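Weekly structure sync, notes
Attendees: PL (lead), two postdocs, one rotation student
Agenda item 3: pending single-chain targets
PL asked that the sequence for the first pending target be pasted directly into the notes so everyone works from the same version. It is reproduced below exactly as submitted, 513 residues in total.
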Amino acid sequence: MTALTLSTAAAPGLRADAIVIGVAKGSNGPSVAPGAEAVDKAYDGRLAGVLETLGASGAEGEVTKLPAPSGFKAPVVVAVGLGAEPDKDAGFDGEALRRAAGAAARALAGAKKAAFALPLAEAADAGAVAEGVLLGAYAFDAYKESAKETKGAKGAKGNGKAPLAEAALLGGKPRDKAYKAAIERAAAVSEELNRARDLVNTPPNDLDPEAFAAVAQTAAKEHGIKVQVLDEKALTKGGYGGILGVGAGSASGPRLVKLSYTSPKAKKSLAFVGKGITYDSGGISLKPAGHNETMKCDMAGAAAVFAAVVAAARLGLEVNVTGWLALAENMPSGSATRPGDVLRMYSGKTVEVLNTDAEGRLVLADALWAASQEKPDAIIDVATLTGAMMLALGSRTYGVMANDDAFRSTVYEAAEEVGEPAWPMPMPEHLRKGLDSATADMANMGERMGGGLVAGLFLREFVGEGIAWAHLDIAGPAFNEGAPFGYTPKGGTGTAVRTLVRVAELAAAGELG
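Predicted structure, written out during the meeting:
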């Protein structure tokens, strides 16, 4: 991962491959953002005009490269757009800084060192820039022979360019405890989020439930997290009919992984539950051609939960956090669950399976009930659950449902604070009737319209009484099939990791709504 340093050095005298500055979009053209005063001075105060001549406007994510002024030890200035110029007395928000730093870091692939002269009014700004750099520099190349040709370039991109090796944050305060803490937090969260991205991007032939569980066990051992793995035998003995039913058609057996981070100073406990379908063919209700190619990402919820628990441990948060990874591969075969089969869930309820491609809610149901037995203060599940949520909110925003309005607001606000677009969704009671079954206690499918909300209502049935619960349907933003933007790469994004970590921080601070 890119090395980070805080620096008080002046931009002209710093040895680096590039100096990164911010440019805002003003009413009268681009304007140079705070932090780049020394660079602007070297252009005789005419940097904004030069950038405008080169076609720069300051729009979000825009990257413009130009030769550095005479006397600079760095050969290139990289101007990155911050978006709209803030009001006079306001600074740039954290997400604008994050996205700008990410775009610049990605544009600097192959560079050994870059100095970031972006606005750092306070420690939180340094943390945002650091996150942007670390997330924007991400690359997944484990399966590319071309990457091996770049000597010593761990994580090299397929074009032979390694990610930016080092970033110095100018204007940072190396001896300031708040700044150091912000950088350390950014490093821990970003490294674990990038680990989640790696998991999502790993082909399903190399990441089945057993392999995922092994990754979790290794990380748990490294960070002092207790881990328990239930295999097919243990799942059968325990009566986990949902997880077993989904995994029945695969040669790779299902797993339920429990990760437990505990703090001796904790006053609150949280449970995070993740959908971990390592490959989703749809089962007997087979997905049509064109809908299978990215289904390695159907374990993104479990990846997010795993990363969040490890990040909480690395940050030493004063809260107990348990992660439940419900892992299975949904495949068609002679042993697969059929439409019309009835499964007895871990809770004891029976579910008629009307569509085997509505499998995520089945594995989550067992994990939610298991999490509920420990009576945490709150549960959050994360899942690439429904195409309906993508139709409702698009590919960059996830939906938030809950059984408690105050808790839903807390989770939504946490998501907004860390820069993960989310939207509160309702749980209309009239849709619950559609889940009734003439054969079993309930069915795994209800009304087609509002399918994302129906899925939330199904999950609610498996949350213990009196426990605040939220459901994050991340089907849209979990996997980016388009071009990279800001600090978001193509492929696995690691969405929801930062939201979960932020909720854990709020719980540790006694601010959980």
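Discussion points:
- DSSP finds 15 helices and 20 strands in the chain.
- Residues 151-158 have pLDDT under 50 and may be disordered.
Action: rotation student to compare against the earlier draft before next sync.
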